[in-house]
Design a protein that fits this description.
Order of helices and strands: HEEEEHEEEEH
Helix content: 10-25%
Structural class: alpha+beta
Number of strands: 8
Distance between the termini: 36 Å
């Protein structure tokens, strides 16, 4: 969790916060996408997290990708901005957020996969026709749009 969000939590407790996220759908040379099994709820999602105060969104996306997966994004392509009731979420600890998720696609990356010990249980590339069913609710809309886009090509 970002320092900014942690500071706000100290003031407002578990009450809902508007949270801006920067996320990355990584696509490898075989067209597979990288998902991570989250440590907090053991559901699959793409990499991402909160944007810090005054942080450039693309930098936040690159930072989160590196922290969670060990991969460096050499370039990012804006995929979309996702918001609304489907991105409202209550974390296992009771913290409530309404997310605005700015999602990028990364096809140009380097580094060695290494799961962030305290946040990620597992990292795995999936074919878009074989995605796990246990997808974290806040990323489902973007994942569905991504799969639809890929299948229409």
């Amino acid at each position: 969790m970002s320092g900014y969000i942690m500071d706000l939590r100290g003031e407002v407790g578990h009450r809902p916060l508007l949270q801006v996220g920067a996320s990355v759908i990584v696509e490898d040379e075989k067209g597979r996408i990288l998902l991570q099994k989250r440590g907090d709820n053991h559901l699959w999602a793409y990499s991402g997290g909160s944007v810090e105060l005054d942080e450039v969104v693309e930098d936040a996306a690159k930072r989160e990708l590196f922290e969670e997966t060990g991969l460096l994004a050499n370039s990012l392509e804006l995929f979309g901005v996702f918001s609304g009731k489907d991105l409202h979420y209550v974390y296992p600890n009771g913290d409530e957020v309404s997310n605005v998720d700015i999602v990028f696609i990364c096809r140009d990356f380097s580094g060695t996969l290494k799961a962030q010990a305290d946040e990620v249980d597992e990292l795995k590339f999936f074919d878009i026709d074989s995605l796990p069913s246990e997808i974290w609710q806040p990323v489902k809309g973007a994942m569905e749009k991504y799969v639809k886009m890929r299948k229409s090509k």
